[in-house]
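Notes, Module 5: Reading structure tokens.

Key idea: the token line is not a picture. It is a compressed description, and you learn to read it the same way you learned to read a sequence, by spotting repeated patterns. We will look at two proteins. The first is printed below with its tokens.
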Amino acid sequence: MADTAPLNGPELDPWQDTRPFSSDVLTNGCNPSADDYNTNDVPLSLNGIHHSTNGNTKAELRHMNSSSDNKNALDTGYVDSENAAREPESGVEESESGEEDDDEEGEEDDEEVEGEDEEGEDDYEDEEEDEPTLKYERMSGAINDLLKKDSASALAVSNNLLALGTHNGIVHIVDLTGKRIKSYKPHQASVSDAEFDSTADFVATASIDGQVVIQSLSTHESYMFDMKRPIRTIALEPNFGKKSTRSFVCGGMAGTLVLREKGWLGHKETVLHSGEGPVWHVRWRERLIAWANDLGVKIYDTQSQMRITFIERPADSPRADLFKCTLHWQDDTTLLIGWADYIKIACIRERPHTATASGSSNQPPFIVEITAAFQLDCMVSGIVSNSPSMPRSKDGSSAQDKTPQSFLILAYQAPDTYGDEMTEDRARQARKTAERPELRIISHTGEELSADALGVTNYQAWSCNDYVMVEVDGSSSPGKSGRCHVVISPKDIVIVRPRDRKDHILWLVDHQLYDEALEEVGKLDDNECSADGDQSEISPIAIGERYIRHLVAEGNFAKAASLCPTVCSTDVERWENWIFVFAQSQQLQAIIPHVPTEAPQLGHLVYEMILAHFLVHDRQSLMRTINEWPKSIYDVSAVIVAVQAELDRSPSSSSSRSLPAPDTVILMECLAELYTANRQYGKALPFFLRLRRQNVFELIREHNLFTDVKDQVLLLIEFDQELLEKRKQEGTEAEASSSEAIALLVDHIHSIPIVRVVQQLRDRPFYLFLYLDALFKKDSQLGFEFADLQVTLFAEFATHRLIDYLRASTSYNLETAYNECKNRDLVTEMVFLLGRMGNNKKALTLIIERLGDVHMAIEFAKEQSDDDLWEDLLKYSETRPTFIRGLLENVGAEIDPIRLIRRIKNGLEIPGLKEALIKILHDFHLQISLLEGCQTILNGDSSDLAKTRSKGQNSGFFMKSRSICVLCTQPLQRLPQDLLLLFLCHHVVHASCIDGMTDIYSHEEPSEGMSMLASGVSAKIAFASVVRARIHQGCPVCYRRSEGNLM
């Protein structure tokens, strides 16, 4: 019997170790390069290399007959695995790299592997990759620092607690986050095996120093047994912490399987089996104990104390000490066996009852059926079920129904078969470099479903027995949920979890399948979405941004821009960032149609940048955008400056009738719209005129732009004349004298000075004539200083109206006007001017000799009222019957008929006389009066309001007995003799409350007797005048309120 003693192992802090160690984990999917061994804290991926097997790799399988003997022969072939594309899974960070003091020999190995990596990558690039099934995460926390100084050798798990045994004989208790809970040193050599009880209170460890230690984590209870020989494995009875027997089973190099139980007299030792070589592994489930030795696997029933089966180890198996056996109870009746390159599934069921009872008492109560057995192309370092465990059938269903759907195995590619150990060739004796371990999912038929290569530190140096994999329920781990697995190597702890929908989305994103990723995100339930929020990597916004970046990198800017409204939504900063990205890529036009102008409204610089882009590249879009966008979202003044600068660089458009270039027209349209939006109507006016906008006159009148028109007179009249010509072409009657522009100029001479108009129209005489003519028609004295110029203009453009002007105006110079008419041979006008100048005889001579118009001569004589002129006319008419007839037709007060008849020579024949129709009206009174309707209405309203106010102020005022003085807040009728002052605003105050009214009482109020009516009224008026003179600011209440001194 081994020695036993209580053990109170001290808790240890991290210790020093001089062995070199590199804790980097290589990026999965490639062989190591020289950079893979760099330990300068480079974050790398733990994700495994994923093999796209797609169900094409399958092991030959032969099901074993359940009624066969315990010895089973298995004939299987090796797995022919395919090399598939290996891509690292993103999103998982590795722990920090280790120290940089690796030896030179390790660096040389790294360089050799680097060459293999470069060749292997080329083979994988063109192959399609399937989505992995698992995800990997390096355990973080203090455990990484511990493994830099020691190496892991054993692992046990229970209730999310890990018991990690090391080669230094130390046990660390950590949780799944890597937080160290407790450390103690129970052994002096490597810990070969460890196990938790179901309560996670007791930890049992076995060591090659021959010691077995069971330690309670919550109490001081502990047990230590010296077995004298190295112990390889240990297993605690189910519910160890709840039973008083404290039973466990262990085995090792001594070749015996020992069961120890605690009794009244101490621990009792029972040898369950011996004599078949070392015991490599043992596991206890309910009443069944399974162990493995050199010959195979045996299962023992503790209740019947009988061995119920023996599963033989294949004859051609490699050495048992180099490739360990792994036993895993999937449930109470299913045992998974992985040994070297073989996997067997054993299902235990109750032995059926037979009619013959002979010998039944010597038979075990259970029988074992091998439901599946197959050989792999790798060594098995660990095996667990990849499907939920299934309870034992109670209705007699076949064991085949309980076969797990798939297995998760930790595969080790053996670099050497160790079949020629006796060779003297040193090259063959040298230790071969190991491959990366792999996690494979194998179906129950042997089909490889997926394979991921794990990147672990210094994997080239590790053997099959250096890796351990255990299953853990991670439902209570912080931030995690569901079942997971833990894989350890001497320097690494990797947590393996099944991939969920979020991982699937991340995989789609990493492989640039963004459309599918966004579709999957839409399928997430509300709890999943709310748990992650907008900042999550799988939120539609995050995925959409990655999608946009991908599309931008590929040059698909149109599709990238179409995603922006969904991705950016109402996030102003995100919108602006993406717009600037498009701008930097010279693809701003792609995103412009999607840029929001409200909900959200972006910064004004963004909109101004877009307008600047249109200004340079697409001016039609610039004009359309300015018309459509709200003017409040950008700085209108800044845009005006930019457009104006561009217009200044364009070919100048003169004020002639020819239209400017199309681009110039667009720029002017933009400026007109911008100035109007900025309420700078005066600056917009020149562009409206040059663009021939028909609403110019309405714009001028609506916004009172008459002052701005004074410098745009020529443009205004030109535009108006074009409208008149257009109406004539359309068949609408129009006269130049009906020009709307001329009428506007004439009606607003106070805002548009006459001198400014004349200066601008000097080079366009016809327009000047129209203006001065309209001005004269309104008021003959308005343009008196330009009368001589107007004579010339009438003589050129309206000769038939010149005589009317000469008669109506007195402002022109007679001599200048006569010379102008003389130069143009305007006889009628010359006659009139000579008459004005007093040279009546010369005027009459012109009428008689040049015109021969008797009626005109008579009228001229009448106008002059000169007897000598009449004498000359009569003298001239003596020999001209026509003149005599005309004179006779005009006999009146001016001509004495007798005088005329006496001068007629005898025998002169005068044609028939007729009654003359004299009186021809020549003058037309110009009636241009603009009825100011609005002014008339305003005057009427003002009058009505004034009457209303006067009536209100002069009406009576009802004062209540409790009314108070606003100034002193005392009752108005506090004393009968108090003088009260009533103002038109209906405020009543004490006279004594007003400054300067203290001596007002010295003036006696006049009597109101009927006999003194006249004097009393006069006295009241006088008294009121005195009071009014004392009140300088009007109503004191209103005044103080206006000053803010009275509420």
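Here is the second protein, with the sequence above and the tokens below, as before.
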Amino acid sequence: MSLPGKSSAPLRLLAGAGCLVTPIQMLTVSGTGWFSISWSNAPRRMIHTNSTALQVQTAIEELLSVGCDIEPTSAKILFHDGFEKEVTENSVTTEHVVYGTEPFCGRFSACSPSQLVKASPSSLQRYDLTEYTHVCFAHKGHMSNILHISVSYTNLSLCSVERNLTCQWDFNGTDPTRGAVLCEGSEEDGHLYVSTEDVRVSVTIQRLQVSSPPLGGTFRVHLGSTVISGVSVHISSHQLLKLLQTNTDSSTAPYFNTSDFIVTKDSESCYESIWTLTWRTKAGDLPNVINVWSCLLVSAENLTGLKPAVSSRVVYDGGVFIGPIFGDMLATSNNKTQVVVVVNDVPANCSGSCSFQFSQEMTPLVSDVEYSADDGSQATVVIRGVGFSEENTTLQVRVMNMTCYVVMSNQTKVVCKMERLPLGVHQLTLLVRPYGFALNASTGEGIFLRVEPRLVAIEPPRASEIGGLRVALRGTGLEGVNLVLFGSQPCPVLEDTRSSTQIECKVPSRGTEDAAVRVTLVSGYQSTTVTNLFQYDPSLNPAVVSLSRNRSGLAGGQELQIGISSFANYRGSDVKVQIGGMWAQIQAQMDSGLNVTLPALAAGWYNVSVIISGATLASNRVEPLIHYISEVFSIEPCCGSFLGGTLLTISGLGFSQNRSLVSVSMNEQTCLVTRLAEETIWCLTPPAANLSNEVSQDVPVRVNILISNSSLQNVPVAKSITFNYQRALTPLVTTVELEILESSLLLSIQGVNITGSVAKLGDSECELELQRGNESAVFYECSLPLSNMEPGIYPVQVIQTQLGYSHVTARLQTITVTPRITSIFPSQGSICGGMLLTISGIALRARRDLGQVSLDGNYSCELQSSDNSTIKCMVLPGTHLLPYQWWAQVSWTLNVTVTVNGISSVCLGDCTLHLHEHSTPLVDAVTWETNGMYTDVTIKGQRLAWPGDSPVVRVNDQAVCKVTFWNETIVRCQMDCIAPGEHNISISNRSGRACFRSTSSVLTATPQVHQFYPQNFSTNGGGLLTFAGAALKGKSGTSVLIGQHPCLILNVTCVAIRCTVPPGNGTRALRLTVDGISYDIGKISYHEESTPTFLSLVVTGLLLTINVSQVMEMDTIHVFVGDSACRGVTITHSELQCSPPLLPAGEYPVLGLDVPRGWASSNLTFISQLMVTAVRYNLGGLNGGVVHLHGTGFSPGQTSVTICGSRCEVLGNATTTSLSCLAPRLHGQLRHKIWHCVKNTP
């Protein structure tokens, strides 16, 4: 009876037959010396008393070899296959091997076989009857008195003979272990003894053991202090459960009267019965009340059978330990610590003293550990204490699983070198051989090494109270410092200068800290504080030492330069400038100070304050004040022209240089500001308002200046801000004469008060210079270049620089600028146009009008580019020209005219374009052919090219055909593969475009299919159909129909189409459609002979073997398991093999694709099993942890793992063959065995 469970007391009850053993003689020899063994008067050999067993065996074998065969009798016995060794592949046994009973021959006993061996005769090994005289087998089970034996042999005539024997067992003799067997031949074969065959076959059966009686009777159970008698060996599990629960007491009831306690009956036969007691959920190791030796005992009471016995054993006794039992758990108790040697998980026996004594006096003690690092990657560890060694080789120091190499040691000190350690607390071990590991002298436990940042200097050691200074902190172990505090304020660490021996940070402002501030280095959860390394010094504070100005206009906007001492150390700090109550915008920070833009303020005096990191700077030898003021002192000139244009100069203080902040008005009319300075404004007066002939000689107007919406009207009394318009000061122009020169306009002007004037036409102006003509006439002249003028009509304006605009009374008051053509190129060309015409001249374009070119006749010139002196355009024939034969002998003369801004040009030279037949290229023939991915075009004709001139071929007005060869009569070019449809071809040279004389300029390309292949496909579709030809890629689309079903297009070029055929049967027509036009191409066929077939599937490890038909070894087959490809496909005869992909558990169809015939017929299914083959890190504590599982069929993202019913959280690194999960904490419960449950979720 077996009682497994959390804390179980398994009891096993065994009953079975005894066994017959070979007689054994034991020889006992005492004393020392020699002795001999004799047998049948054979010569004796002397044997010493201390001889080995092998020496004694050798002596006995020599003694027996004299008169007998030393080969054992078993050597003549044929041990039948299936009993003395494992079952082979070509034999089948129907029994099950019994391991609990030793066999009488061979290695196993067979229980209740219906057949001893079942195999084909050809697969059985033949044995010589003269060598093997007996056949031995052990039979255990139901007794039968009939044995059927088949014998086959070859007689002397070399004929095969078979005999079937029926043998009766007779065990009624006096010897219960032996019996006679009577065997008779079958009716078909006659009697067994056939003398004519010279063969004698006899069967002798020796019964080695009498059949055992069945197991029966009763036994008793000791449950705590209660004895339960009369328990039948045939009791059921339910009856045993109730029996135990009704016989509990106060000590055993908490364990047996619980819902998690169950009893199962694992085995019941004629020779044994086994019960198992299990606590399914009770955690932990149960107390001794359930101990098999003190509480639950079983003993035989009235058992029947062959040597019946009852026993119990513990299967699992709680806890989480499921590995081998350690040797110290099996050791006997001893007052001293025992040394146990374990080999293959088996503890060795101690025949002597295996005690070990721990001695306090022999234990090395560590009192202090000091760590220091150099500037490189090395560190030194100094260990102080007692019980060390002066021999370096006897010491071993390790920190963080790294060795610290000992360089010096004595009884109280050890110095070692190692790699630099990270900041933190690290455990240190010191091994002193032969005494062992050292302990902490103060705690008696582990030794720990603290690695802290060490600060030795701060450079510079002093800074101003404002902070912002960049300081360097020098020391060791600084690489892990993540925070620096000056007092309680952080000093931001600059990451670009960090190292293990130096870090830099920007000192914070002093605030409320002491002058001698404490500096703290923080690394993780550790901190180190030092004093007396840094001090705030008020004498180092920066100060305002200069201001670039002390006056500003009300509008502000001026630049103020503030000089600050020692400011180079604070550039980039939090700097602010305040003027009055307004913040000034900082434009730049320099080593010497700041540049700021002044804000707009009302008139008055204001303080200038500079604030750095919250601290306001003091001033040194400068008064930080600025005066906001705006005043007008004078206006010059006082008087000017009624027509305006007088340049006023306004002098004063506090003006702005920003035009958007300053405006000047005169009687609600704007005086146009031309220039600004802080103390001067220049503006042009507007014409006097309501001007008429009746206006008096003087018209005074008030001048208003507005700055930032503040009107400046309060000026000194002695200064007037009134301007007078005076008729006497208005210049008068009486005569204007114009002379147009080759490239300029010459103006001659006469009048009054026009000395020092400029003449202006549009945006162009020139200074008038005094000229003296005949009869002492006085006039003024100036020249305007036509290259700077646009065509148009301009009024004549004369401006006197002091007085303003003149009043023009001359007859000529406007001047017209006309486009002028000086030449054209070329002057002759092709009748069909196509030449690039270049027009040169003056004033040929305007800013808003690029110009238009007109030609006589039915021709036009398409503008290509233009500027003031050149226009380029393409000559094009009209759309209604007569055929070439009608106008080939005609010469055309075309006048060229340019129109700009509605003004037509004048011609200063030859402006005529001549078109002649002898200048016209002619095309007589155009042919094309497709060559791979390109189309070659050949053009034949006359005057197609000139020496040194490369013609240009255009297709649909695009220069896409690259010329590869040309002469006067032939031009060849190459372009991308031509699409089907009509294409317009043209060719041009320096004479212009060619005329098509005896052929059309329209090239028509029709789709052409030269061949398609293959023509036989699988009925399942999927085959790859390929068309080869020309002009196959349409502009709007290309499609293929097979019968009434589309062929799925894979790719299309101008010379090839590839598509996937649909399923079908029989013969189907092919139809190609390009750009909406259909073409009948031919037919293809679907045949079963062209359809590959997958017949059967065998999975062997990581290899799929598929039996196929209609497949050749040279075929290209792709195999898919589900949607994934099977790798490494090979075909041998009718077998296909490949390596399946690693897939999540499930069933997947197995498909095959023959290239190019199509899909194979297949009903095969591949089953991917969900299996766990290995678990790593499956031993652990109650806190859980990461468990790694290996196997097959995992589904990443859809696999769940449970351990003892609790979910194990799957981590994100899962694949189909491995995954990791985070085992949960067991919350105080112990488990006797961990069960994993892995499943894929949909």
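Summary for the second protein:
- The longest strand covers residues 160-170.
- The radius of gyration is 59 Å.
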